[in-house]
């Protein structure tokens, strides 16, 4: 007997959204449809497959074991169909959607001229840029939700191509009253001002402080560079950022930027993308522009 199941690409897109968001309601909002439509389509997909993809509960849904096994293929198939459509329409002129992820720091200090040049040169490309931590961006890329991303190196994964775009000098950022970083060891409880877990700079800061003999620092997570710099300036805690990011605040005397030992000082900013996806004319043009930044 041949097992045949009619699975529509839009069903897989709904399935992926529900699995990622953990809610039919939130998936419906993201996909710009009504919750009843998502619920009905997921139920029909489960009936066709003869398995339960989600466990329903008061807080939303939780993906089941069979759903977890199916999830990677949903992303692959959805992306493959999108690539097929893009390839068929690609006449060599950069156009269509291009979703790029980036670190907040890279967006703030590096991407403005690159993105400006790209959008001026290729106005038919619908460029979307989102920010996140390195861990978040790698996950979104592996799950086919991004076409490429700027992340902090090193990143090693067999499914990813990577190229060095920038090299940043990292500095320990403190309040202006801290003239010697070694004095931080005398703090009773030191706070680190950081992005959420998964930020590579956060991990490097922990390594720097550990090397100074500071192991009891407590993290304060913030969502923006401006907020982080303001908290450091006020003496709330310390952080680790590229020198270019804090250059203006340091020149104004709002923070102090302390050089780091060579082992911690330099970090590569990489542009990464999946090896198995179609390289559209838009992506090819973007990669060529990235090459000029190195």
TrEMBL record:
Residues 7-64 form the HTH lysR-type domain. It comes from the Bacteria. InterPro entries: LysR_HTH_N, LysR_subst-bd, WH-like_DNA-bd_sf, WH_DNA-bd_sf. The keyword Thylakoid does not apply. SUPFAM superfamilies: Periplasmic binding protein-like II (SSF53850), Winged helix' DNA-binding domain (SSF46785). Belongs to the LysR transcriptional regulatory family. This is Transcriptional regulator, LysR family. The lineage of its organism: Bacteria, Pseudomonadati, Pseudomonadota, Alphaproteobacteria, Acetobacterales.
């Amino acid at each position: 007997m041949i097992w045949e199941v009619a699975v529509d690409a839009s069903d897989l897109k709904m399935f992926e959204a529900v699995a990622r968001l953990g809610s039919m309601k939130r998936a419906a909002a993201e996909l710009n449809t009504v919750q009843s439509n998502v619920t009905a389509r997921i139920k029909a997909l489960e009936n066709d497959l003869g398995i339960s993809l989600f466990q329903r509960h008061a807080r939303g849904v939780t993906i089941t074991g069979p759903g977890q096994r199916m999830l990677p293929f949903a992303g692959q198939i959805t992306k493959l169909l999108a690539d097929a459509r893009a390839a068929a329409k690609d006449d060599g002129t950069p156009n269509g959607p291009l979703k790029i992820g980036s670190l907040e720091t890279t967006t703030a200090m590096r991407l403005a001229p690159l993105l400006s040049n790209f959008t001026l040169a290729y106005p038919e490309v619908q460029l979307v840029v989102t920010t996140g931590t390195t861990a978040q961006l790698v996950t979104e890329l592996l799950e086919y939700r991004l076409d490429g991303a700027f992340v902090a190196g090193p990143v090693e994964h067999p499914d990813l191509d990577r190229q060095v775009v920038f090299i940043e000098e990292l500095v320990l950022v403190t309040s202006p009253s801290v003239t010697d970083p070694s004095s931080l060891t005398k703090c009773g409880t030191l706070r680190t001002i950081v992005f959420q877990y998964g930020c590579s700079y956060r991990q490097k800061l922990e390594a720097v402080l550990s090397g100074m003999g500071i192991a009891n620092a407590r993290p304060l997570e913030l969502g923006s560079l401006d907020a982080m710099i303001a908290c450091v300036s006020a003496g709330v805690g310390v952080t680790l950022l590229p020198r270019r990011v804090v250059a203006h605040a340091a020149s104004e005397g709002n923070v102090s930027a302390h050089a780091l030992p060579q082992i911690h000082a330099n970090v590569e900013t990489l542009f990464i993308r999946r090896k198995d996806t179609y390289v559209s004319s838009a992506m090819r043009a973007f990669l060529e522009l990235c090459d000029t930044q190195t």
